[in-house]
Structures are given as structure tokens and as C-alpha cells.
Write a structure and sequence with these properties.
The chain is α+β, with helices and mostly antiparallel strands. Helix content is 28%, strand content 32%. The strands form two sheets. A three-stranded antiparallel β-sheet has the order 1-2-3. A three-stranded antiparallel β-sheet has the order 4-5-6. The longest helix is centred in the last third of the chain and has 18 residues.
């Protein structure tokens, strides 16, 4: 079992795209748009794209999240975001 690498910071770039720096120094841009485009749990963000900028980083850095109007969290964990960031960075490297 591996330890979760916590995030140091996270900020929205444009709707569906987040810039993240992990506490081990790795930084990446994570494109969440393919995930946000489908699934009921993301209806709120699709309906209110301006609310994407209200992204919050959990105090221990283990997840980022948004709160919908009912106070429910829409969240992504650090591990899955890190995997996605590394995979997307690899695809960019292959394309260049």
C-alpha cells in the first residue's frame, strides 16, 4: 500500500482544468473535462460553470472539491488526480 501524496495547492485554470502542485514538488495540469461531461454527479458544475472557480482544497490536501447548492461535495481524490496528471503529461510528451 502506498501513501497518499497530498496536494499543496490547486487552482482552476479554465472550466474543467485544474493546476495542482503536490507536496513532493510534482506539478501538473489536470483536464477533468472528459469526466465532467458525463455523469449525474457533475450536473451541478455543468449547469453552473462559473462555480468551477469555487474549487476548494481539503485541509490535509487529500482531495479537491466543490459544494453544490445543497451542500453536497463534488470531489476528486489526490491519488486519482495524480494518476491523471501523470498520464496526461505523458501524452503531451509523446505528442511533442
Amino acid at each position: 500500500m502506498t501513501d497518499i501524496i497530498a496536494m499543496h495547492s490547486a487552482e482552476p485554470v479554465i472550466f474543467g482544468v485544474v493546476k495542482i502542485v503536490w507536496k513532493d514538488g510534482f506539478a501538473g495540469i489536470v483536464d477533468l473535462r472528459p469526466l465532467l461531461a458525463k455523469g449525474e454527479m457533475f450536473d451541478f458544475l455543468r449547469a453552473h460553470p462559473d462555480r468551477f472557480d469555487e474549487l476548494k482544497l481539503e485541509e490535509h490536501g487529500h482531495k479537491i472539491f466543490w459544494l453544490d447548492d445543497q451542500g453536497d461535495e463534488i470531489d476528486f481524490g489526490s491519488d486519482s488526480l495524480r494518476q491523471r496528471a501523470e498520464r496526461q503529461a505523458g501524452l503531451l510528451h509523446l505528442a511533442s
